Amino acid sequence: xxxxxxxxxxxxxxxxxxxxxxxxxxxxxxxxxxxxxxxxxxxxxxxxxxxxxxxxxxxxxxxxxxxxxxxxxxxxxxxxxxxxxxxxxxxxxxxxxxxxxxxxxxxxxxxxxxxxxxxxxxxxxxxxxxxxxxxxxxxxxxxxxxxxxxxxxxxxxxxxxxxxxxxxxxxxxxxxxxxxxxxxxxxxxxxxxxxxxxxxxxxxxxxxxxxxxxxxxxxxxxxxxxxxxxxxxxxxxxxxxxxxxxxxxxxxxxxxxxxxxxx
Length: 263
Hints:
Layout: E1 5-18, E2 22-29, E3 33-39, E4 58-64, E5 70-79, H1 82-85, H2 88-104, H3 112-125, H4 131-145, E6 167-170, E7 175-177, E8 189-192, H5 194-205, H6 219-237, H7 243-255
Parallel strand pairs: 3-5
Antiparallel strand pairs: 1-2, 1-4, 2-3, 4-5, 6-7, 6-8
Helix pairs in contact: 2-3, 2-4, 2-7, 3-4, 4-6, 5-6
């Protein structure tokens, strides 16, 4: 007989209000993938769950299986990155990372690689020399581990190696087109400049975030790379990532005073 309760470690990805006092919490776990569970009474003052279910937190929690949604019975915070939480642009990026993980995480099936990736990026955002570049790397890696890695080394139609130059990325086909195949493809094509392609390939080829380096990228190139990845992700998940606009505004405002966030 299956146990009626379970315990796991997880990352709090999203929250939704339920009724007057409860919340539905989305938690990424290594063994069960994404878990959606009800935190009863969490919106009331002095609840025993308290601040143990804050977004981006790493928690140890216990829950009981429910007919539609599980119910959280216990939660304890294991880690909160204070350096991120005290910095609005970095916090906005952390919230974006969590929403993106929530969009890709499977429910009810093991997702250790996605859990490790998300946890690593959240831990690294605080001291990261270029938080923008780290976030773009996360987007690239989450597409990879989820099976949606765009093909940008070879033409997605004819499989010929792509030569240096500008190309088109076909959203439907999941990859770039060489000049001879531009009239082919499924549709929804994005222009990718030669410079942007070099950045995208660097992100794909870098397996560890600490190997990203600190390349100097002009603002227009950053905008192009971010726009390409954003459109590709939107096509894959079939919806907008709601926190993306807030993140862009927060980073843009900080960029006027801090070169780490200059866009």
